[in-house]
Specification:
Elements: E1 2-3, H1 16-19, E2 23-27, H2 32-43, E3 47-52, E4 78-81, H3 87-101, E5 106-109, H4 128-154, E6 160-165, H5 178-198, E7 203-209, H6 216-222, H7 232-240, H8 247-259, E8 268-270
Parallel strand pairs: 2-3, 2-5, 3-4, 5-6, 6-7, 7-8
Antiparallel strand pairs: 1-8
Helix pairs in contact: 2-8, 3-4, 4-5
Bound molecules: NADP nicotinamide-adenine-dinucleotide phosphate.
């Protein structure tokens, strides 16, 4: 993992012996990057709390196996339908995870919306209600998850790692993406703040830009018309050239932050490109 958005190499990996048995929460785990992170974490032997508005499912091969007809309840993931904009529901989900596993070591605020694509003004202006919803999910949702996890870390022994999924759009302006760009810039900054506030309570906080990952969100970007999103061809080209980071690659970098032997010097980090450097920011 490299710092401040300019990846030049994979950096130190996670200490795999330290990962198995640890407890991770991933929001927005019903599909896309969140589902991929969950799958990879499960493969590492982590215990999981997963949520999204649609209750996530975990692939059969990563489900705990029955021994003598019994599945150890402490290995069964918590899978919940949660809207991250509802702090109370999110807090109850976290309490369920803690009740089952005893603690949460890593919390990934991944749930996010691309939101409306289009200018803020003119005949094709983005719908104000969609803008408000994007800000609510991408900013309030992340604030909620951050607060719930920070409260948890304060109440127990040891350290915890918070990863808020950001985007290159936090720093690169894209025409037609005002709500998304603004929301991701907010994610970076709120994460810097909580990193300062909670360091003395054992919380390490990172805003992680995953690079381009081939998900429904990317498909929606590619399907946009040029009038609404003038840079759409760059994203279509990236797909043609298969210039994506896999969820497993992103997961390894998240685990390196949480359980690796080194720490980056900055709160805002970018997962390096897995394939050819794309120069794009999703
Ligand atoms: N894909 C990329 O190239 C890329 C690049 C940079 C950053 N990112 C960021 O990575 C994260 C994941 O993106 P993705 O590409 O995987 O998107 P995606 O395929 O659209 O998946 C988004 C996930 O968020 C969940 N979600 C949406 N609103 C929610 C809410 N209110 N409460 C709980 N869960 C909610 C969705 O599940 P439900 O519909 O079931 O709620 C889904 O599981 C986002 O934060 C995105 O901004 C992605």
């Amino acid at each position: 993992m490299t710092a401040a958005g300019r990846g030049t190499g994979p950096g130190p990996g996670p200490d795999h012996d330290r990962v198995a048995g640890r407890v991770a929460v991933v929001t927005g785990a019903s599909r896309g990057l969140g589902a991929g992170l969950a799958l990879h974490f499960a493969g590492e032997g982590m215990r999981l709390g997963l949520c999204a508005r649609h209750r996530p499912v975990l692939a059969a091969r990563t489900r705990p196996t029955a021994r003598d007809g019994h599945v150890d309840p402490s290995e069964v993931p918590v899978l919940s339908a949660v809207d991250v904009t509802d702090r109370g529901v999110l807090a109850r989900f976290a309490a369920t995870v803690v009740a089952r596993f005893g603690r949460i070591d890593l919390w990934v605020n991944n749930a996010g919306l691309l939101g409306p694509i289009g200018p803020l003004a003119g005949p094709a202006a983005a719908d104000p209600a969609e803008i408000a919803r994007t800000i609510d999910v991408n900013v309030t949702g992340v604030l909620n998850g951050t607060a719930v996890f920070a409260e948890h870390v304060r109440t127990r022994e040891g350290t915890g790692t918070l990863v808020n999924i950001s985007s290159g759009a936090a720093t690169n302006p894209y025409e037609g993406w005002a709500a998304y760009c603004a929301s991701k810039a907010a994610v970076d900054q709120l994460t810097r703040v909580v990193a300062l506030e909670e360091a003395r309570h054992g919380l390490a906080a990172y805003a992680v830009s995953p690079g381009l990952v081939d998900t429904e969100m990317q498909a929606a970007i590619r399907a946009t018309d040029r009038a609404s999103f003038p840079q759409v061809d760059r994203f279509r080209r990236a797909a043609t050239e298969h210039r994506f980071n896999s969820p497993a690659w992103v997961a390894e970098h998240v685990l390196a932050l949480a359980f690796g032997l080194e720490r980056p010097g900055t709160v805002v980090v970018r997962v390096p490109d897995q394939a050819v450097p794309s120069g794009l920011a999703g």
